[in-house]
Structure formats: structure tokens, C-alpha cells
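Progress note, project year one: complex with flavin-adenine dinucleotide.
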Amino acid sequence: MHQALLFRQLSDDVVYFGNETALDAAQAAQLAARGIRVIDGRVTGLAIDRDRLAGVRLADGGVVPRAVVAVGARMVARGGFLGGLGLRASVHPSGMGEHIPVDAAGRTEVPGVWAAGNVADLSAQVGAAAAAGAFAAAQINADLVAEEARLAAETIARR
Ligand SMILES: Cc1cc2nc3c(=O)[nH]c(=O)nc-3n(C[C@H](O)[C@H](O)[C@H](O)COP(=O)(O)OP(=O)(O)OC[C@H]3O[C@@H](n4cnc5c(N)ncnc54)[C@H](O)[C@@H]3O)c2cc1C
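Model obtained:
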């Protein structure tokens, strides 16, 4: 839905293939208002003519002529290697995919583990990903400094 509206910025000839997913009334009204045609049927493949895309093939045998097709892919952070630390990817609130949730400083739910960049923020571009990494690094250093000071004070208190 979101991507169909984005593509409408680039072309006034956009078709939304629902592939049997239902739109709610508000979404249908928005697509209609932007002149985006909605096709509900199940998509079974692409029609190819002489090695070029000719259209989108539907389960009823019909072909909707199209010059370009874009698929709404999900973004899933490749965070499986964090499973050993007790971290699991969860569904991003936007519905765009799965990520490792962090707080504003990059802290994960596992104490001592931070995450930054696309693994945490699926839509971060290079600037935001790098900034989150730098901020998390500063927070990690602050955490280590605080722990060092706490342990030093405890050592002195025990003497
Ligand atoms: C098609 C596309 C176009 C984009 N265009 C732009 C653009 O024009 N401008 C812009 O600012 N941003 C753009 N971005 C976004 C940009 O790529 C990201 O913001 C940025 O790469 C995020 O950096 P990152 O370090 O968080 O993740 P990544 O760059 O994805 O780095 C993660 C790294 O970890 C590695 N890795 C994964 N698992 C493991 C493991 N188990 N062990 C060791 N290494 C591992 C991966 O191989 C990868 O190298 C684009 C992204 C895409 C997909």
C-alpha cells in the first residue's frame, strides 16, 4: 500500500495487485483517490514476450499489461547470530519487517549488548546508521566507565 502510493509520485499509471490480500475501506479509498487501479485476484506469474515483461498473469488466466513490476519485499535484519546472546528479531511496528528492538541509545533487552544501524532501524540510511553506531559506542564507553568507577569505590569501601 505504502509503496503503491510512493510509485504514484513517479507515474500516473500504477496498478496495485493485492494477490488476495484484503484492503480496508480507507486504503481502498486512498488508492482510488490517487487513480491507482486495484486488482484483487491471485497473481500466478509474469507474462514474458520475447524476453521482455509483457504483463502480470492472474489465476483466472487474464494478463494485465504492464511495462514494469515491483514487489513489496519485507526487510528482515540478519540478526540470527545474536540468538546466542538471547536476542531474537521481532516484528517492526511499521509492519515493514523484523528488527532487533533497541532504546534511543542502542541498548537491547540483553544487558551489555547494543545494536545500531539497519539491524535495529530497518529504514536507517548510511548517515543515521553511522550516527547510531557512534552514539552506541559512546554509551558503551560510558557504561564501562561507570562500572569501573563503581567497582573501584566498592573495593575501597571493603578495605
Ligand atoms: C538497495 C539499497 C540502496 C540503498 N541506497 C542508499 C543510499 O542511496 N543512501 C543511503 O544513505 N543509504 C542507502 N541504503 C541504506 C544503506 O545501505 C544502509 O543504511 C547501511 O548499509 C546500514 O549500515 P549497517 O552497518 O547498519 O548495515 P550493513 O551495511 O548491512 O552492514 C552489516 C554488515 O554485517 C555483515 N554481517 C551480517 N551478519 C554477519 C555475521 N554473522 N558475521 C559477520 N558479519 C555479518 C553483513 O555482511 C554486512 O556487511 C541503501 C540500501 C539498499 C539495500
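The chain has a mean pLDDT of 94.
The chain has two domains: 2-65, 76-158.
No further modelling is planned for this target in the current period.
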